[in-house]
Write a structure and sequence with these properties.
The protein has two domains: about 90 residues, Rna Polymerase Sigma Factor, Chain: A (Orthogonal Bundle); about 80 residues, Orthogonal Bundle (Arc Repressor Mutant, subunit A). Helix content is about 80%, strand content about 0%. About 15% of the residues are buried. It starts with a helix and ends with a helix. The protein contains seven helices and no strands. Helix 1 runs antiparallel to helix 2 and helix 5 packs across helix 7. The chain is an all-alpha fold. The longest helix is centred in the middle third of the chain and has 35 residues.
């Protein structure tokens, strides 16, 4: 059986049930689609190692559990960050101190330097997702690329930004 046939067999048998399973857990259709899509990307990447003679469902459930855990952590970290920023805003006076303004301007300058180093495509995708608040699906549709490509470009952009921001931070001290 060829690699393509093997993948199609697994996809045909499990994509719909997995989608409804994840939808029930997440209660969000876009999130469920993204997680199932990512699951099948992992299947494709490991298709040579998968034995279709034995049950494949436990492997798929493991992929789904890990992806759900990642999604939960991402959302939890994001909500925690928003709550933390909100608390910090409550604690500070209505007029920030001069040091805070300088630090903010410095971080903005660092971010600007980091963003300028990105390719035009990555810069555009980053801007649409982070600054305009569009979903990966919306960005993919508007740029005529796959959602997986948008996710990959975002991951690479964030890795680059972290690296440059850390380098700038550590060279300051």
């Amino acid at each position: 059986m060829s690699r393509d046939e093997k993948f199609l067999e697994i996809f045909s048998a499990y994509s719909s049930p997995l989608f409804y399973y994840v939808l029930k857990l997440t209660e969000n259709e876009d999130t469920a689609k993204d997680i199932v899509q990512e699951c099948f990307i992992r299947v494709w990447e490991n298709i040579e190692k998968i034995d279709t003679a034995s049950p494949v469902l436990p492997l798929l459930i493991t992929y789904i559990k890990n992806l759900l855990r990642d999604e939960y952590r991402k959302n939890k970290n994001y909500k925690h960050l928003l709550a933390q920023v909100g608390e910090e805003m409550k604690d500070t006076a209505s007029r920030p101190a001069a040091e805070d303004l300088l630090a903010l301007k410095d971080r903005e300058k660092q971010l600007d330097i980091s963003l300028k180093q990105l390719s035009e495509k990555r810069k555009h995708i980053f801007s649409m997702v982070r600054l305009q608040g569009l979903s990966h699906k919306e960005v993919a549709a508007s740029m005529n690329v796959s959602v997986a490509d948008v996710k990959k470009q975002m991951r690479l952009s964030l890795q680059h930004l972290r690296k440059v921001m850390n380098m700038l931070f550590f060279t300051m001290f």
